[in-house]
Amino acid sequence: MPNSILSMKDVTFRYPDDREPTLSSMSFGIERGQRVAISGPSGSGKSTLLYLMNRLYPENCDGIVAGEILLFGKAAESYRPGEINHRVATVFQDPDSQFCMPTVEEELAFTLENLNTPAKEMEEQIRDVLEMTGLSHLSNTTIQTLSGGMKQRVATACALIMDPEVLLLDEPISHLDPLTAKDFISWLDGLQKTFNLTIIAVEHRLDSWGTFFDREIAIDAGGKIVSDQQFNPHQTFRYPQRLNSILDESAISANGLSVKIKGQTLLHPLSFKAKKGECIVIAGPNGSGKSTLVKALCGIYKKESGTVDSGACGYVPQSPEFLFLTASVKNEIDFSGTSSLNELKDLMDSLRLAEIAAHNPFAVSHGQKRRVAIGAMLADKRNIHFLDEPTSGQDQKALLELFHLIAHRLDQGDTVLIVTHDMEFAAAVADSLLLLKDSKMTGMFPAKRVWQDPDLLARHNLLPPKGALQHAKSLA
After folding, report:
1. What is the DSSP secondary structure assignment for residue 84, as one 8-state letter?
2. How many percent of the chain have pLDDT more than 70?
3. Which of 48, 83, 166, 301 could form a disulfide with 295 if both were Cys (CB 3.0 to 4.6 A apart)?
4. DSSP alpha helices (H): ranges in 115-254?
5. pTM for the structure as a whole
């Protein structure tokens, strides 16, 4: 692979406590300027592969590597710790994991300080990258007050300020609303052409990228490359049709609910009702108050005003590891002690968790962590379920199983409220859409009406799901 800037030959990677390797006999090369998508099931080792490319592994773990890894023509192990990271920049799956400073500008300055950038050059570089990424208005904003999507953009800006040759992206659009994701991909396209960046991205939502990539490396569940070929735009995954099972009984209601934290209004007063057996998708632009609403309904955020009337609730946040309390996936699912052994087995099988039952939940992939948290919530047998971005990091098989689990709970009379930017999943499961914008509720609408209203979708940074218009007409 003489022209490759990154290459691997017969590379195998195994964690010390695992019998089987995470990655097996990997051989490929990536040339300068290529746009490469890395696809495969959740837990197949896609993120691990990125970490071998940026030398995070094995420098920062006890992993065992065999084979040859070359970075810019040099053996990977010949680089000093941190030496490669200004040439190969990374945006991680969970942006919170890479922030060190309180504000956006301070985080960018911290990155430059690590590169020994002279102080007199910092201000100009920070200003330029903020303008380039459209984040100038957030310069002095506290990062932890931003939405997940905004945090992802800040993390990308921190990578770009290093002026890298290679940009590694781990599911970069998973927390972005559809219109923002489309704009991000378009912006990335222009950036790559201007600077001849090499872009390597782990991605499940390949149908959202159109023709952006020129190559796809597909990995199977055993960490082996099953195909390496020219990228072909993916067809949107289609879900089965779900029958409406709404009962004429209220499950949860909010009246005049608002949230204010440290003098900042995060949610203006709103009111709505959800019935038993109803699935409500909460949608809107990044930063519109979706996660705030869910946390207020669950009692995690203190109400500024209003009331919430509901039964017992289960909740899975965007960062599911915040919920983990035990040292194994099996114990995490069984923590509540509410479900029978047969019910737990069925739940773990349907969520594809049986094969990682003994693993520490903090050590599995992002998609698997989310499924562990969802499984623990469902095992607790609450009647109202709140899921914040449950499709993030999930492959098609996992999405189909999640669809069936939600449909089954709805058939039993449970109520499910889902925050998601995945309009294909929303079109499959939603009875109603609760739309938010600028921390205000626009309204709660029957799903089929929203799919037939392009203007309403556009005002909330949403794109019509592929085929949803025909689906909506079939339900009319």
Report:
1. G
2. 97
3. 301
4. 119-133, 148-160, 178-195
5. 0.83
